[in-house]
Design brief:
heterotrimer; A alpha/beta; B alpha/beta; C alpha/beta; A: alpha/beta; Pyruvate-ferredoxin Oxidoreductase, domain 3; six-stranded mixed sheet; 6 helices; globular; B: alpha/beta; Rossmann fold; 11 helices
């Protein structure tokens, strides 16, 4: 499968880092080589957040994403900052309720109502990140559904496992 | 039948390096007598930690025991590691006022706050003796030192009150002019569960005495005896009346949970069910 | 020795891999002070060390942290602390004490941008020389440099083993990027991991500070009446504050036990190192970009090679010299303003041209493209 570089971006508190960790863990479960990094600042919640996942069947050297194959943007400011790094053939996933302006040059754009689904189904926008991961699994096929579910179970608190798995399913359904 | 005291059971036979008349020798001898009277026939079961300064040489290498002579001011952190891994040992720290409440003050407060089960004996000679008579955090303001030739401009520190308020089980002050009381205080400290702290006001005829106007060690001892006042008496007097006096006695003597007990219960809790 | 995780494949952060490896290596005492980017090590051990009867204590500062692990080591425990630049600076005096008193312990320095507070959350490789020469006086250091999460694991175990074998502090010189990245890591079954334990004295032995290259180490509380001191001492631990011979014997032996065993201690990875025209000498996170640059060079017909140092100190001179014999140029890429570069230049003794490539600020790594262009530009 070669090498896939993914960047998930948004604001602190949206679960951007957790989403990257779940994706990375799932790819490891699928037997791939993975490097996951995140922007790490002293900044408080609400400031820019970024998580990157590189998945490859070969050894991974340089750990940072330079040109992404997949960009997931959970806020307008994050998209504005990062869309320049999306490859021409790259895939863009945005939360359609939080991102309105998408540059025309990008062909493959998926606008997903992730935070709306999270809010109506789970009464909390906190689940929007996992809804996006569901959609991402169908669209980009980086990790298997089974591995993604296993990774979610391993990454979230026991009390929220069930709700997160349902959020993931809801994300799968968005693209089913 | 009580065994007679024999210094060979407690000392390696290396002579102490202290000046004639130094209070350090007194503290060493009284400490060993106290240990003897508590029924220890030797120093097995003890470990001594000390830093840098004259009184850090009291245990190292003279006591026939395990001793760790650390860097300046860091005896209490080292003692912390020792005590936590060997909770059954009696861990005793010796140090001067420069070591314990100068460079190492932060560690003293935190050890008291944690109620770490060690005994700290601070020999307070009110000066940096080994380095040649510089001002210490304990030097009375009126005494001129080699670094305060016009007299001091800082208040001396009341280490015992500080340790008491930080949460130690036991904190006391005594002087080398009160041998029996010193011995009793050391015994009490060694029997204490939790942090025990003794400030021993002690004479340094070489670096302090001559600067403070004393002819010899004997004069200093007389002065210390005559200017000491028990904490019970001091509590009846005004701050002004206590000024210039050495307040001696037990500042606190109480039962409090110790760091070792708390850590052991944490280990029990963690091995049972983890933090969730 | 038990860690927290079972053997098998895991997805771990670099700092977590250090903590897990420490437990497997036998670490039962950890003292530390919070600091980015090393705090996850303390947090992991605070959670998991008590489960196996170990102790993690947060001390009042980094000076106390290293003091406490020195005490714990003499109490018989394998002990570790972890910090970053500012805390590493504070620890230097007691690192010298641990060296002088032959106290095995592991100090992790997760490098971040400096000097001073610098860019506290950003990566750098600026502590290379401090890890070698940070304390005062004559001494020798063992410093290991990991470049992946899995290597964080293995070099932590190796650091404990070297500390125990040579009775000396060992520094694991990590960096923010490797510490905070997550990767797959295969943890082997515990019984397949080699663990070294310090040699203990037989009952009658008394010479704990000399008499042989690495003397046996008693624990306190076992009846040996051991006298530990950071002052100059003879083989029995007796203090000699003026005798020139005692000092010379002691310090020569302490430095010698590392220098004389440098070949055994040093570890590296080499690719086309001795036949290349242009080579990298690289270490830590930066080496990850160098590997990709080498691949680009190979695809473009450039005869490039690479040596990645896992041991920075003692400096692996011999392997560096073997590259210098045939290479026309050696490139030393670092996230600092030239540190190991000077050591490479010293070791190669003018046999080849040594070129520094440096980048600092914002935690930004040298990229494979930047390094490839250096290879290409140096080709002529």
């Amino acid at each position: 499968m070669g090498r896939i570089e993914v960047r998930i971006c948004g604001l602190g508190g949206q679960g951007v880092v957790l989403a990257g960790q779940i994706l990375g863990r799932a790819a490891v479960i699928d037997g791939m080589n993975v490097v996951q990094t995140q922007s790490y600042g002293a900044e408080a919640r609400g400031s820019a957040a970024k998580s990157e996942v590189i998945v490859s069947d070969k050894q991974i050297g340089f750990p940072h994403v330079r040109k992404c194959d997949v960009l997931v943007a959970l806020s307008q400011s994050a998209l504005d900052a990062h869309c320049k790094d999306l490859k021409e053939s790259g895939i863009l996933l945005v939360d359609g309720d939080l991102v309105s302006r998408v540059p025309e040059r990008i062909d493959q754009v998926y606008k997903l109502p992730a935070s709306r689904v999270a809010e109506t189904r789970f009464k909390s926008r906190m689940y929007a990140n996992v809804v996006m991961l569901g959609a991402l699994t169908i669209i980009a096929g980086i990790a298997s559904k089974k591995a993604m579910k296993e990774a979610i179970e391993a990454s979230v608190k026991r009390e929220t496992q069930e709700a997160n798995l349902q959020a993931f399913e809801a994300g799968l359904d968005l693209q089913a | 039948m009580e065994m007679p005291f024999s210094s060979g059971n407690y000392l390696r036979g290396v002579p102490f390096p202290f000046c004639a008349g130094c209070g350090g020798t007194t503290v060493a001898n009284v400490f060993l007598r106290a240990v003897h009277e508590l029924g220890h026939r030797n120093l097995q079961g003890f470990v001594f930690c000390s830093g840098i300064g004259c009184s850090s040489w009291i245990p190292s290498p003279h006591f026939k025991a395990d001793s760790i002579h650390t860097t300046h001011g860091r005896s209490i952190p080292v003692a912390t590691g020792v005590k936590l891994m060997r909770p059954n040992l009696n861990v005793v720290v010796f140090g001067g006022d420069g070591d314990i409440v100068g460079i190492g003050l932060g560690h003293l407060i935190h050890a008291a706050r944690r109620n770490l089960d060690v005994t700290v004996i601070m020999v307070n000679n009110m000066i940096y003796g080994m380095t040649g008579g510089q001002v210490a955090p304990t030097t009375p303001q009126e005494v001129k030192t080699s670094t305060t030739p016009y007299g001091g401009f800082e208040r001396p520190l009341d280490a015992v009150s500080l340790v008491a308020s930080a949460g130690a089980s036991y904190a006391a002050r005594v002087t080398t002019a009160h041998i029996q009381q010193l011995k009793g205080t050391i015994k009490k400290a060694l029997k204490t569960k939790g942090f025990s702290f003794i400030e021993v006001v002690s004479q340094c005829p070489t670096a302090y005495g001559r600067r403070a106007g004393f002819k010899n060690a004997g004069e200093m001892l007389h002065w210390m005896r005559d200017h000491s006042i028990s904490i019970r008496e001091a509590q009846k007097l005004s701050e002004n009346e206590v000024k210039g006096k050495i307040v001696i006695g037990d500042f606190v003597d109480r039962k409090l949970p110790t760091l070792t007990e708390r850590i052991q219960s944490t280990i029990k809790k963690a091995s049972k069910d983890g933090p969730d | 020795m038990a860690g927290h995780l079972s053997s098998g494949t895991h997805f771990l952060q670099g700092n977590e891999a250090i903590a897990e490896a420490a437990m497997i290596a036998g670490c039962r005492f950890f003292a530390g002070y919070p600091i980015t980017p090393a705090s996850e090590i303390s947090e992991y051990l605070a959670t998991h060390l008590p489960k196996i009867g170990g102790i993690m204590i947060q001390m009042e500062d980094e000076i106390a942290s290293i003091g406490a692990i020195i005490g714990a080591s003499w109490a018989g425990a394998k002990a570790m602390t972890a910090t970053s630049g500012p805390g590493f600076s504070l620890m230097q005096e007691n690192i010298g004490y641990a060296f002088m008193t032959e106290t095995p312990c592991v100090v992790v320095d997760v490098q971040r941008s400096g000097p001073s507070t610098g860019q506290a959350t950003k990566c750098a490789q600026g502590d290379v020389m401090q890890s070698r020469w940070g304390t005062h006086g004559d001494y020798a250091s063992i410093v290991l440099s990991p470049n992946s999460v899995e290597e964080m694991f293995y070099l932590t175990i190796h650091a404990f083993n070297l500390a125990e074998q040579y009775r000396t502090p060992v520094i694991l010189l990590a960096d923010e990027i490797v510490a905070h990245m997550r990767e797959q890591i295969h943890i082997p079954p515990a019984e397949s991991i080699d663990i070294v334990n310090r040699r203990k004295p037989k009952t009658q032995e008394e010479r704990f500070f000399g008499g042989e290259e690495v003397p046996p180490m008693p624990s306190i509380g076992e009846g040996h009446n051991v006298a530990v001191t950071g002052s100059t001492h003879d083989e029995f631990g007796r203090r000699f504050t003026a005798d020139p011979g005692v000092h010379q014997n002691l310090v020569t032996r302490l430095v010698g036990k590392i220098r004389n065993n440098a070949e055994l201690v040093m570890d590296f990875e080499a690719y086309n190192a001795t036949d290349c025209e242009i080579g990298f000498i690289t270490y830590g996170c930066t080496s990850r970009a160098a590997y990709e640059a080498i691949e680009m060079a190979r695809n473009n017909g450039i005869n490039a090679g690479l040596i990645r140092l896992k041991t920075l100190w003692p400096f692996p001179e011999r392997i560096v010299q073997s590259m210098a014999r045939n290479a026309k140029k050696i490139i030393v890429p670092e996230m600092n303003v030239q540190q190991l570069f000077f050591e490479v230049e010293r070791a190669t003794k003018g046999a080849t041209e040594v070129i520094p490539v440096n980048k600092i600020g914002g935690g930004e790594m040298l990229t494979p493209e930047e390094l490839y262009s250096q290879l290409k530009g140096s080709e002529n």
